[in-house]
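User: Let's play a game. I give you a shape written as tokens, and you guess the letters that built it. Ready? Here's round one.
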């Protein structure tokens, strides 16, 4: 930055001291989400349930909230959204046509006016607060649905599987990706989407995939996995999903899990590099696709 720019910005002094940051971005992210949850969980919960929670119902308000979270420009035109989700037209369409949505928002201004706006004339539903959008985009939706009280609502992720691995085990990851795609599964494998990743903030792009957008995460836990920065970043995203039946650990025979390894709490498989890798991968893919 030139001297003139600094002066015009009101910067009059320069500090020559530097500080090393010891707190990881993920720790900061989790702290931010915890703080946002104190403010935004309640309006998100109340919107998701609608005027009355129907535990086994089709959850039209919950689906609207998720569609909003997935929108690129903070808003959705409801007719267009219904065209993209025809399976929800009956339930979501009803709360729009009968003006239940409009009435619900109008009757609860203290909860919703600062975060969600509905224009009845254009049928445009939009998010008013960028922090609320960030909170929604980082929700694990199946978990959130259970927290809200729904017992029959499941969300299919953007991907069926996301692969997490260290570069040393890319050969195995590549084979698993090929076999899963042959079985017509939607797979997040970094090389498949290199063109999208290069145009994005990598952490912002990857975090929601491992946090919630993949129905299952397949973690290839080789010797190098704990040592790699990106493997740690990915595992930090999906670690809260243990217990949700959505993590598939693959332990390598030369890197068995330790006694206190969290992955031992869920079922997984072991792969042995001294045996035929292709045969083992075929067996793994068959198992996870059942």
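Assistant: Ready! My guess for every position:
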């Amino acid at each position: 930055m030139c001297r003139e720019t600094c002066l015009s910005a009101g910067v009059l002094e320069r500090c020559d001291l530097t500080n090393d940051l010891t707190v990881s971005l993920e720790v900061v992210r989790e702290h931010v989400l915890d703080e946002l949850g104190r403010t935004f969980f309640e309006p998100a919960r109340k919107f998701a349930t609608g005027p009355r929670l129907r535990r086994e119902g089709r959850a039209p308000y919950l689906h609207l909230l998720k569609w909003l979270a997935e929108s690129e420009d903070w808003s959705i035109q409801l007719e267009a959204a219904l065209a993209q989700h025809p399976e929800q037209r009956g339930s979501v369409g009803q709360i729009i046509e009968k003006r239940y949505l409009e009435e619900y928002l109008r009757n609860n201004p203290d909860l919703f006016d600062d975060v969600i706006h509905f224009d009845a004339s254009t049928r445009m539903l939009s998010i008013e607060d960028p922090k609320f959008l960030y909170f929604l985009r980082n929700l694990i939706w199946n978990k959130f649905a259970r927290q809200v009280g729904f017992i029959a609502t499941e969300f299919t992720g953007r991907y069926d599987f996301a692969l997490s691995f260290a570069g040393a085990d890319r050969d195995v990851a590549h084979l698993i990706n090929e076999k899963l795609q042959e079985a017509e599964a939607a797979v997040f494998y970094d090389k498949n989407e290199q063109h999208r990743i290069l145009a994005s903030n990598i952490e912002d792009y990857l975090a929601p995939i491992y946090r919630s957008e993949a129905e299952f995460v397949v973690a290839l836990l080789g010797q190098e996995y704990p040592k790699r920065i990106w493997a740690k970043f990915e595992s930090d995203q999906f670690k809260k999903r243990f217990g949700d039946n959505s993590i598939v650990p693959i332990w390598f025979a030369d890197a068995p899990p330790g006694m206190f390894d969290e992955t031992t709490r869920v079922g997984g498989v072991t792969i042995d590099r001294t045996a035929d890798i292709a045969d083992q991968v075929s067996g793994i893919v068959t198992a996870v696709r059942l």
